From TrEMBL:
<keyword id="KW-0597">Phosphoprotein</keyword>
<dbReference type="Pfam" id="PF07228">
    <property type="entry name" value="SpoIIE"/>
</dbReference>
<feature type="domain" description="Response regulatory">
    <location>
        <begin position="1"/>
        <end position="115"/>
    </location>
</feature>
<dbReference type="Pfam" id="PF00072">
    <property type="entry name" value="Response_reg"/>
</dbReference>
<dbReference type="InterPro" id="IPR036457">
    <property type="entry name" value="PPM-type-like_dom_sf"/>
</dbReference>
<feature type="modified residue" description="4-aspartylphosphate">
    <location>
        <position position="48"/>
    </location>
</feature>
<dbReference type="InterPro" id="IPR011006">
    <property type="entry name" value="CheY-like_superfamily"/>
</dbReference>
<protein>
    <submittedName>
        <fullName>SpoIIE family protein phosphatase</fullName>
    </submittedName>
</protein>
<dbReference type="InterPro" id="IPR001789">
    <property type="entry name" value="Sig_transdc_resp-reg_receiver"/>
</dbReference>
<dbReference type="InterPro" id="IPR052016">
    <property type="entry name" value="Bact_Sigma-Reg"/>
</dbReference>
<dbReference type="InterPro" id="IPR001932">
    <property type="entry name" value="PPM-type_phosphatase-like_dom"/>
</dbReference>
<keyword id="KW-0378">Hydrolase</keyword>
Amino acid sequence: MVVDDSRMQRRILSSQLARSGYEVLEAGSAEEALDISAATAPDLVISDWMMPGMTGIEFCQALRDRLQSGYTYFILLTSKTESAEIARGLESGADDFLTKPVSGDELRARIAAGERILRMERELTEKNRLLSSTLDELQAIYDSVDRDLVEARKLQQSLVRERHRSFGNAEVSLLLRPSGHVGGDLVGFFPINARRVGLFSIDVSGHGITSALMTARLAGYLSGNSPEQNVALVLTEFGIYDARDPADLAEQLNRLVFRELQTENYFTLAYADVDLVTGRVVMVQAGHPYPAILRADGRVEYLGQGGLPIGLIEEAGYEPFEAQLLAGDRLFLMSDGITEAENQAGVQLGEDELAQLMTLRSGVSGAAFLDALMQDLASFAGAEFGDDISGVFFEFHGAKANRD
């Protein structure tokens, strides 16, 4: 668009541009040019600076305010040569200027420069449009995944259907809190027979969807609802179930990981076979944090010798160990999300500090003990935890015949 109050000047410029293949619109004033621009936004404007009514600078500012999309390259025509005046024109929003009388070669060169800028601007606009569209698609995918993960969290929490059970002379309480939507921790228990119960605490490597899927598979292997599918149980010749030795169970799970699951994930395990009558406990530790016994007098004892995680080495062997629970003693199997919880200084809680917290809360029982422990962890590490938190808290009240 050529804007000039001189009809002759408009015709000269329009003819030069038309011969170069451009479609040219003409306006005799800035006001007329604004009306034309409302219907047809020009790609490039060549406007005289000094015109009756609205000046070229005022026209440039008004055009910039009105055009909502796209960019118009604006060249001012002027007889001014002072650098201060030229700077004022550029600061007003003009992109370039031409000094009268206009040279045809210089006009074509300035327009070619404007075309390059417009081409780059449109390429950027298109890239931004594609980027915005991609971000919208990614957001939609994220929202969909987020909804799925919310449901997955509910399903994973349902793997631990029973969070507390009383066995008359003993009780078990479970804690499971993933650090994200889903996690790699699993806790649970299952009856072995009328006088024994199996307790387990598992921590699968990682924290995401793969880890959560593996916990679901492991929950099936240690199901209390389907003893025929529980790899910890074996059917005896008398038609009743008995339990594998804890070390044999760890070896069996290790074989299953390599032969059936065929995954790069591994997991740590603490498993306890507890006699509800005598308080005798047979355990195995496979890379899991050391099981702790909170004695009736408030002392804390850590058990085990570490062991290799399950699914890490195919030929790994495991050793069982025993403990004796007396009336008032509590057994705690926990994930490393508890012992390795960090405060703002990056210092981990550790076993000694955990023992102090357990002693401090020794007067609290069952789920209330686990809730109190979570409050203590939150005070130490903050509300957000970097790892999944889980635990099995078993309380032994003494043999049935001797409870009173």
